[in-house]
Model the fold of this input.
Amino acid sequence: MRTVLLSKSDELYLEKCAQENQFAYGIIVGHQADLTKSIVVHLARNNEEDGDLEDINDVRLTIADVNSQALASQWLSASKMCPGSFDVIGIFVSSIRPDVAVDQSSEIKNAKKLFSDVYDLLLKSNSSFGVYTTDIAQTDYVFLSYSLSDKKVLCKNYSYGNGGTFSNMEHRFVDKPFEWIQLDSSYYLDDVLPIVDISRRINIEDQFQNIIKAMRKNLLASEVFLQNEMVEDTIDLQTYIKKKKPKGDRLKPTTGGGTGSSTPGSTTPETLPMISSDGGVGAGDSIRASIVLPVKCQLSKPTDIKVREYNGTLRMSGIIATRIFCSPRNSIADVKRFLRDDVLRSLITRIQVYCDGLTDPYVTNEALYISEPPRRVFFSLPSEGASTSVGAQIQFSEYLFRGEAPTVAVAQAKQVLDVEIDPEAISGEAEGLPDDSNFTNGNQTTDSTDDSRVLPSSMPKPELSRSLYMVGIAVALLVLLASVAVHYVITGR
Done:
């Protein structure tokens, strides 16, 4: 039977939600430790103003009153902020009413319908839902209900299909802090894809979907190295770390070898961190991973290699910073899958955020179109959440366009994850801003007689650019008039 592990802080949070609001609901962010155990990483109350719940303090409110749209929206937003080793694994409800935690009650029937509605909304509103993973798709979810009146918790396993079914699930509050091991990688993108669309007006979003498909194919064919070494998939992460050196010794930093060459679409070796032989990772340290792709022609059958003429090409260039947090019990196969998932999830999220801001997704095939998706920034959960874990401090991420302030991530963390974070604590060093020469080079190679254009997302919109242009002309005219006036004052004519 599947078991859900919670910390004491999770129990305090459920109690707090019921005390403050009488009735509250939200999402569960979790981690799959093994085939039978899921660890609750974070509980996030839904803070969206819900028109259906006019008074959240009304004790008469039930699960039937919950807005499935608000939950689905929070679910999607949180999924984009989670590292590849974490997922939104379910829904929780906290109430002062005792029947929310009673099996076979009407509330449990309402919960099953709520889960089914949320799942349907997720499938309809997001084509990437369920396709984030490069290997194993999530099929079972958690429903957790807490009653403040008798401090009782009920946990159910939800499986989608045939209207959705609930089955029994165990839960356990763990006194011992959860241990997390951090793994980092930098995935370098430098690839070219053909544009096969023969239309004169090309849909940019469709081309981005082709990028996702190509990336997923490449990641499935990739190999992952830890500390520049090939590691067996069958052993767990704790065993791998203990095997590095005898107890009492430490793995000294060295420069990586040739396993992580600068192949387009792969990672490159970097200096290795210090790892203690007792299975833990030193404060601020992490295991360095490299994702290496095979030669591209190896991914194709000989019959698939053809010489063709295309209307255009799509070039991807940049760095995806990857950071995941794993349990010592995770197998190396799981660790590799989490790393691949993190790269794919980060790419999909950037594309979704970028496309959401497009006013017109079409561009002519003669155009030179340069896009700058948002960069990834990381932030840790508040100290009270961090105190329930040892080893690495878990982090979530947000995506900021050039010029956006860290306060954007602060607001998103409050709205989606129900946490207060300090703008100064947001780390934006993992991914630097792109070189402006990319845009300048684009302008230099553009023939002014063509219908070509350069439109990076971070640059001002056309309306704003025209306004700045007119302001520039006005300033120039004022300077000219001032020069003429000074000339007349000095010369007297």
